Amino acid sequence: MLGGLHSLDLSCCEEITDVSTLGGVHTLDLSGCDGITDVSMLRGVHTLVLRCCDGIRDVSMLGGIHTVVLSACNADISKLGVVPTLDLSLCQGIRDISMLGKVHTLDLSGCDGVTDVSMLGGVQTLTLRNCNSITDVSMLGEVHTLDLSGCTAIRAVSMLGRVHKWI
Q: Does residue 70 sit in the same domain as residue 95?
């Protein structure tokens, strides 16, 4: 049993398929572990990194995890609106982000499928770097820290005067 283990990095261990006993690890990096398809038993993890995990589709059970990194994944994110810190950068299949308005820290860098960010005004730290399909950011005036670098299609920023910190 690995319950006492604080941090475990198994990135690029492509032969791993069963991670059901790792739910007690505080910080778990499974990036590039393409053999993993089921992460439902990892609800006790604090920080879970699943970058480039192509086999994982269902992440609905991860709503109780503090930090979830799903960069370059194609999972269904519809149940992740309660995760405090969520990294969905380079997730090309994402279109609907309406359920993410209560996430505290959200990274959608390079998500070209995202066009409407109007419901993200409640996010505290929002990274939209290189999101070239976004044209209107007028509803993001309440965001505390905002990164719009490389967003070439944005037309106006006049309503963003209340943003505390620009990156």
A: no
Report how far residue 90's alpha carbon sits from residue 111's, in angstroms, rounded to the nearest whole number: 5
Q: Could you tell me which of 74, 69, 73 has the C-alpha nearest to residue 28?
A: 69
Per 3-state DSSP, the chain is made up of helix, strand and coil in percentages (nearest 5) of 15, 20, 70
Q: What SS3 class is residue 149? A: coil
User: Which CA distances in Å does 113 have to 62, 94, 138?
Assistant: 23, 6, 19
User: Hey, what long-range contacts does 21-29 have (CB within 8 A, 24 or more apart)?
Assistant: none
Q: What residues make up the domain containing 125? A: 88-167
**What pLDDT shows up at residue 112?**
92
Going by pLDDT thresholds of 50, 70 and 90, the confidence category of residue 29 is very high
107 in any annotated domain? yes
